[in-house]
Design goal:
Length: 220
C-alpha cells in the first residue's frame, strides 16, 4: 500500500486529490495538512511514502518543508513531490534544489497524477526530458558555477558518463543502451554517483551536474 501525505493550504484542492487517490486500491491517504509546519509534523508521525506538497503556503512554505524533510534522517524514505499552479518557475527550481524528487502542475490529468504518485513511491522519480530542458535553460540564463564540487573528483569515468546522461533526461534503459551496459549496471553507476555527490534523487543529480560544470548547457 502506498501511503500519501497531502499538504496544501486549500481544502478544496486537498479534497479533490484525496477523492482521486481514495479510489485506488493500492494508495492510502494517511494524513492532510494545511501548511508546511503541520505537514512536517504529520510526516514524522505517519512516515508516508510520498508527500504531495504545495509550493506556496502560509506559516512554512513548500520549499522550506521540503528542505526540512530532506535534512531529517528519519524521513529519508519520504519522497517529496511539489504541487504548483505555475509550471516550472524559480520556486520549483528552489524546491528541487532543496530535495524534492519532482513536481506536478495541479491541472494534471488524473491518469498522469496517479502514475506520478506510484513512480514516486518506488523511488524511481526522474525528470521528464521537457523538465530537464527547462533546467538547462535556467543555467543558460546565468553563469555556471564551475568551481570544485564536493565528491565530483570521487566519481569514476563511467559514473561521470552516467551522470551526464541523466542530466540529458535519459532513463536507465536509455543510459544502458548508450553506454552498452545492462540496465542494472547503469542503475548501479547512478546510485553510486548519488551517494558520492550526496544527491537525494535524480533531480538533485541533474542540478549538481550543471552546477559543477560536469555538463555545460548549449546556447539556445
Amino acid at each position: 500500500m502506498i501511503r500519501v501525505l497531502l499538504v496544501d493550504d486549500q481544502p478544496l484542492i486537498r479534497s479533490g486529490f484525496r477523492a482521486l487517490l481514495d479510489l485506488e486500491d493500492d494508495i492510502e491517504v494517511v494524513a492532510e495538512a494545511g501548511d508546511g509546519e503541520e505537514g512536517l509534523s504529520l510526516a514524522r508521525e505517519h512516515l508516508p511514502d510520498v508527500a504531495l506538497i504545495d509550493i506556496r503556503m502560509p506559516v512554512v512554505d513548500g520549499i522550506e518543508t521540503t528542505r526540512r524533510i530532506a535534512a531529517d534522517p528519519d524521513l529519508s524514505g519520504v519522497h517529496v513531490v511539489i504541487l504548483t499552479n505555475y509550471g516550472f518557475d524559480q520556486y520549483v527550481f528552489d524546491a528541487l534544489r532543496a530535495g524534492a524528487a519532482g513536481f506536478l502542475v495541479k491541472d494534471i490529468v488524473p491518469e498522469d497524477f496517479l502514475h506520478a504518485v506510484r513512480v514516486a513511491a518506488r523511488g524511481d522519480v526522474l525528470l521528464a526530458p521537457s523538465i530537464t530542458r527547462k533546467l538547462i535553460n535556467r543555467y543558460v540564463d546565468q553563469p555556471l558555477h564551475t568551481g570544485p564540487s564536493a565528491g565530483l573528483e570521487e566519481l569514476t569515468n563511467r559514473e561521470r558518463e552516467a551522470v551526464a546522461l541523466v542530466a540529458q533526461g535519459l532513463s536507465n534503459d536509455q543510459i544502458a543502451a548508450r553506454m552498452v551496459i545492462s540496465a542494472l549496471t547503469a542503475k548501479t553507476h547512478i546510485n553510486r554517483a548519488m551517494t558520492k555527490l550526496r544527491a537525494r534523487d535524480r533531480a538533485q543529480l541533474v542540478i549538481h551536474a550543471y552546477e559543477s560544470g560536469l555538463v555545460a548547457p548549449r546556447n539556445r
